[in-house]
Amino acid sequence: MAQKLTLKKIAQDLGVSISTVSKALRDSHEISVETRSKIQEYAKKFNFKPNNIALSLKNQKTKKIGIIIPEIVHHFFATVIAGAERVANENGYQVIICLSGESFDKEVVNMDMLANGSIDGFIMSLSKETMEKQDFHHVREVMNQGMPVVMFDRVSDDINCDKVIIDDAGAASSAAEFLMRKGCKKLGLITTVDYITVGRLRTQGFKEALMKRGMDIVPGRILKIGDVEDAGLQIAAYIKEQDMDGIVAVNELFAVTASKAIQKIGKSIPKDVAVIAFTDGMLSKYASPTLTTIGQNGEEMGGLAAQKLIEKLESDSSNEESYETVIVKTSLVERESTP
Amino acid sequence: MAQKLTLKKIAQDLGVSISTVSKALRDSHEISVETRSKIQEYAKKFNFKPNNIALSLKNQKTKKIGIIIPEIVHHFFATVIAGAERVANENGYQVIICLSGESFDKEVVNMDMLANGSIDGFIMSLSKETMEKQDFHHVREVMNQGMPVVMFDRVSDDINCDKVIIDDAGAASSAAEFLMRKGCKKLGLITTVDYITVGRLRTQGFKEALMKRGMDIVPGRILKIGDVEDAGLQIAAYIKEQDMDGIVAVNELFAVTASKAIQKIGKSIPKDVAVIAFTDGMLSKYASPTLTTIGQNGEEMGGLAAQKLIEKLESDSSNEESYETVIVKTSLVERESTP
DNA sequence: ACTATTTGCGAAAACGTTTTCGTGCATGTT
DNA sequence: AACATGCACGAAAACGTTTTCGCAAATAGT
Predict the structure, then answer these.
(1) Which of A28, B33, B155, B181 could pair covalently with A23 via S-S, beta carbons 3.0-4.6 A apart?
(2) pLDDT grade for A290, boundaries at 50, 70 and 90
């Protein structure tokens, strides 16, 4: 277990001072060529790598970015992380991941832990509890300390920072419009309760599309799911009770659950009922029938978020406070569940 | 942008020395009660939190663990991370995630970056390329520096360290046995090429189960997939050509792809062909029909890996070099794809 | 009243870097 | 011979902590 090599040890072994070693390794002209190569060879031979912690302390930057998300076992978030990690790595950064598990308290604790020097900036998507409580003191606090924050997907208008989102309302509207163009007259929507921003916006977009076509908005055809646990039962009942020929679902799970319920009552997809889902993940690709989806391009969102964060980090911190909201285009992927 | 509070600033503001502040905040009896409470109140008021980097440097430990995995957009790995993150957090640790993207070089680079002081220990699953090359110098190197490593899932016998794996051969054997008990006579296997340890072991277990029952092993019924890209075509051809009444697949994707191919040629599941898959993820739960699976309990594996790593980290590092391999039980989840 | 003991606090080292500022010595210039 | 210049290197500060040690003053013990 060869102890970790430090400048100090090299200096001792070679009979020079620490500063000389440091300078030699950075190829400073202050050091004679012989001394320099002697030190460099020694360092190479014993595979010296400067200690990151010491560098962080000295430079007051860690080259790490913190990502706080509600869940990782969720295809969309996983793709976001993948994108963020890629861009971070390309720029010499590493990512530290913390999961809030949709809990406000855990989100706060995690942020506090990371904010004390562990990272240079945050990428985050708010937990359900946080959105419900509308309590954002923790993110305000880290921003006050001069730590940049980029939010994605689950964002809040109450916080002034860079954001990366998709045009939820617009995408939901296009989805409904797409179904109507295919001939659907009785559209349904399976969405979340309103305090989840994305659910609310998608509901709003859905309604707008119907209104634009002058169609009635039938309240019963809009199902808002609060407790995901018994989504299955709620959706089954909803499918049985409502007479619809097209359904928009705000996520894959709702869509595939609905799809199964539809087939169970003897209707066929897409002939009797067309289905379109948000989030282009594994389920949509492999469900039966495969689902037409609105892809959220998570990889791209993650990449953009990292990009923006790193830009903020590397610009003169003395710069003006200007925040931007990037809207990532969604992509409609047509599969078997629509005509 | 209130500058980050430090001991030094508190000391200046209160007209005492840095050491006094430090001691007061740790409730040392060396400091008088008045001074202590004065300092503590001040610290609380301005929300002082000690700088993690400085602590890391001082204590020579970061309270962070590095996780290196091939992919994150993969349900199994996501569950492992979730489990590791949970246990890590419970013990005051944080996780840093690096993705190798199945590339040897990226695995090496990432390990090198993390090994220079950023973390206290590693949890990792080897990339495909690494397993193919059989080059493990990078993990040996960090181990030589006294940094503990715990491997999971994709491990190597050539490396001596703690490991967390499932009993792949045993699980594959039970899967085959399960199908035979249900009356299947002509079993097929969809697996990976042999240099992926888990694929090899599952293949081996599958064969053992057949031999134990005295059944012939028909080479054509064992499909080894190397390039995942055209797995679809290979599986479709295989299903068409071979006459089988039961199939074991080493992952969900292969299983659901096979399942679709089977239904496409007009056979019914599970009546004509029974299907059983490894990895109990989203696909199995929502495919049509839903799949009987062998759950790998990724959450548990991640948790155990973190547990073992933290134990190693917190024991006297002077302890004996004893390594353990934990075998996590698999769980058979019966669904519609088997009789 | 003189010595022990306790009390309350500060100085300084250490962790591993980088960087600024000397400093001693050889060389070059008058 | 006197002085400026350049070269090659070392000392020390700084980043923010914790901790050991030392020291002065106050208290206690005879």
Answers:
(1) A28
(2) very high
